[in-house]
Amino acid sequence: MPKSSLPGAGCQRVLIFRGSLCLLYLSAFGAQAQEYSSLPDAPRAAPVVTDAMFYLSIVVNGQTDNQVVPVTYRNNAYFVEAGVLAKNHIHINGQQGLINVGELPDVKAKYDSATQQLVLTVPDAWLPNQKVSGDPLMNYTPSQSSTGLLFNYDSYYTDPPGGSKSIATWMEQRLFSSLGLLTNTGTYRYNIDGSGNNENDGSTAQDGYLRYDTFWRFTDEKNLISYQVGDFVSDSLTWSNSARMGGLRISRNFAVRPDLVTYPLLQYSGTAAVPSTVDLFLNGYKASSNNLNSGPFTLTNVPYINGAGEATIVTTDAVGRQVSTSVPFYVSNTLLRKNLSDFDFSLGAVRNNYGVTNGDYSDAAFSGIYRYGLSDYLTLSGHTEIVQGLALGGLGADVAVGTWGTLSVSGSQSKADHPPVSSDNQTVTQDNDNNGQRPGIPNSSGEIDNPLGENITDKKDGSQYTLGYSYYSTVFSLSALRSKRTVGYQDLTSYTSDTRLSRQADQVTFSTSPFGPSNGTMGIGYYDVEAYDNSHTRLVNFSYSRSLWGQSSMFLSLNKTLGDSGYSAQLQFIIPIGTNINMNAGVQRDSAGNYQEQIGASKATPTDGGLGWNLAYSGGNNPYQQADATWKSRFATIQGGFYGNQGDYTNWADLSGSIVFMANDWFLSDKINDAFIVVDTDHYADVPVLFENQKMGKTDKKGHLLIPTVSSYYPAKVEIDTLPLPADVVANNVNDRIAVKQGSGVVVKFSVEKVLSANITLHDAAGQPLKLGTLVTEQNTQQTTVTGYDGLVYFSHLKENNVLNIQQEDHSVCRVSFTLNPDRHSIEQVGPLSCPGGKTGASAGDKS
Where's the PapC-like C-terminal domain (predicted)? Predict the structure, then answer.
């Protein structure tokens, strides 16, 4: 029978989602085979699908979340739930329910049957902005402090020619804990040749103890705020002065977060049409690489940089197409990031005669500064000082001038109840007709003439203005600052002492590498300070330094005081001649035209301990010699030597170090200036300790080792090396990353212990190795394992006497016991031990 005559030859196929359905249309009499005498009817057209439900993933500008959602197809349009569209950043303008995506403004929709996706294209602005911030240079680690005591000392002996021998010992007592740091510093002086002053050598230092600073300080790391009670030095701005005070100080402390960048870094914004990779190049060097989704992005993972440069951003899509954009940038570390603030509020009394008397405090005073990053391009600052008889206030701003540097301006005003005084405690006045006196020289009445020609006896008000500019780049650097004050201007330090501020000060510095960095760096500086007596101090400095062959280097400097004849100069060569040994030779010229040749040799003292020395000789009209040696150990540093003109030498010696009590132990150490760490290995001795991958030594018999050279708040890596230890010694952890609070110490514990371990061979009653996988439990420690090949099992953390419970094939349990030697330093080999079999609870006795 021909196929055309078969029933169902006119089968139609209708396409349904993910499959096909064959509908057989049979005639009413087609239930059995029939013969036809004519051709069948022509096939009819397939029905058109106008309503269907698809399950598709949504793709928006090339990005998908790989979630399958229902999509309704109706009348050549695609309908999606409003919540699904909103989740994919589609603007639905408040619509609810099923939404026809083709009717949404600025949206293009296409069905991709091959990938079963509904592909949508929307404006880039609809997609969320991506902040690309890579890994920071260091992670934040909260700082710690244990409880302990520290005593620092530095004792200096001197024997000057024709003078009095003396010993001066600087001391610091420090108590630290999680509640803060309490410290006291001072010097005890003893004149060996007799009590009293050293009149022969001009010294006015008295025998006895002189206190320097005493204070308690606590830092709130979460809010970056330090609280200090006692003696301190107030913070200052570039256009104000610090004051040494005693009282209460509350200040911002960015030092507790070394991972935090306080100044605005380079930010670049762009748009990725499709998912891409973005690479950042700074001055030709690749700095970072990150993956992007489609849409706008902001690049913020720029490394710590300062000054001018060029950034190149390269985006690469999935098929390798690249778009490269180069932009110039300028980063200034004198600015604060937007919305970041810095402050210092100090309330107390100004301290006078510091280093001369134990405690000489003036009336109550207040000093405060505040800085705020109004934007990434503008930082505002304010300053105020108040003491009885004086009030001062000022405002300033630091402005980023595009890519051309940073401009700084400030203005201050002071009001006092008396005019400023000169260095000889005389009030500055002016005789209008000068009385024949040169300006700035006291006249017959003891008054100082003002070169401005005005009587300033009543000048109690004054002002100060500063203007500065700086620019730094890889080619050159430029910095300029001018400050100008009127006659009556005073601040906290000058008002409470007999010092005078200058009338005007200018400084300009410039440095460059005109022939490339490899050919040296040249610097020029100009400094001009004008006092109120119209005297000027003007200095010009020129310097040039460069590397020579190997590690050798050369340094040249010229100094000229304008208005004076002559100049001074120095030329020096530094030549390494061995491990840590340097030779230096040069010539020096003073302003009078006298030349002096110089030669010397030195060996740097090893940081981990050892001998260092220094020899120097200079000739000319007044020959000078110097020789000293330094011996550095873990426990102290000893120095000694002599210096002076030929035949007229000063002999000296110095001993410095620290004594620490922490972790119920005493430690002798080299001088500890900042923070430190005590490693505790739980009374296990001779464990090698590494700090930042550098070997620091081994633990003592108490399992302790002091690491004295730790930078506070820096997350440092501390670890122990267990490889040299015996096989029966284990440690639960071998490394840690620790940040220590300023001036404090932390005990870092590593649990190191000696354990008894054994490889045990087990046999059955027939003397054959136990079957592989037999369950074995150590009764005392409840450790469970299974036998390996040849009936071997391994147990650690055992005791001297041990019992094994062995699960046999018939589910009975036999017990074998063995004894270990606690004096061995290796894994013991035990057995073979035989399991007797038979009844549960049978024992093989003690075997070892």
Answer: 760-821
Report yes or no: 824 and 728 within 8 Å, Cβ to Cβ: yes
Alpha carbon distance 62, 587 (integer Å) = 71
> What residue has token string 């009844």?
839
Give the range with max mean pLDDT: 125-139, 487-501, 599-613, 822-836: 599-613
The four Cα atoms 195, 197, 200, 203 give a dihedral, to 10 degrees, of 140
Q: Which amino acid is at 560?
A: K
Tokens linked to 492 = 């906290």
Phi and psi for 744 in degrees, rounded to 5?
-115, 175
The label of the residue with tokens 């300009």 reads 508
H or E element in which residue 363 lies: strand 361-375
| pLDDT at position 422 | 55
Amino acid at 80: V
Distance, CA of 141 to chain centre = 10
Tell me how far apart the alpha carbons of residues 550 and 30 are, in angstroms, rounded to a whole number. 103
| CA–CA separation, 407 and 399 (whole Å) | 5
Secondary structure (3-state) at 545: strand
Residue 263 · residue 342 · CB < 8 Å: no
Is residue 346 predicted with pLDDT exceeding 50?
A: yes
Q: Is 507 helix (H, G, I), strand (E, B) or coil?
A: strand
Helical ranges in 576-627 per DSSP H = none
DSSP element (H, E) containing 236: none
Q: Mind listing the pLDDT tens digit for each residue in 729-741?
A: 888 889 999 999 9
The residue among 109 and 705 whose pLDDT is bigger is 705
Between 330-339, 362-371, 515-524, the lowest mean confidence (pLDDT) is in 515-524
Closest CA to 300 of 260, 324, 258, 266: 266
Question: At 126, phi and psi to the nearest 5?
Answer: -70, -25
Listed range (157-161, 415-419, 636-640) with the worst mean pLDDT = 415-419
Residue 653: alpha-carbon gap to chain centroid: 37
The first and second tokens of residue 135, run together, are 């890994």
Beta bridge partners of 402: none
CA distances (Å), origin 516, targets 405, 524, 543, 549, 585:
22, 17, 16, 16, 26
Q: Which of 779, 794, 699 minimizes the C-alpha distance to 747?
A: 699
Judge whether 286 and 280 are in contact, CB under 8 Å: yes
Which tokens belong to 150? 């520290």
pLDDT bin (cut points 50, 70, 90) of residue 467 is very high
Tokens of 418: 């008396």
- Provide the pLDDT for residue 301: 60
Query: What contacts 24+ positions apart, CB below 8 Å, involve 544-552?
Result: 544/520, 545/520, 545/521, 546/519, 546/520, 546/521, 547/518, 547/520, 548/573, 550/576, 551/576, 552/576
pLDDT at 381: 97
Inter-residue contact 251 to 220 (CB < 8 Å): no
For residues 399-419, one letter each, b for 16 or more C-beta atoms within 10 angstroms of the residue's C-beta and e for the rest, the string is bbeeeebbbbebebebebeeb
Residue with tokens 């009209």: 621
Residue type, 522: M
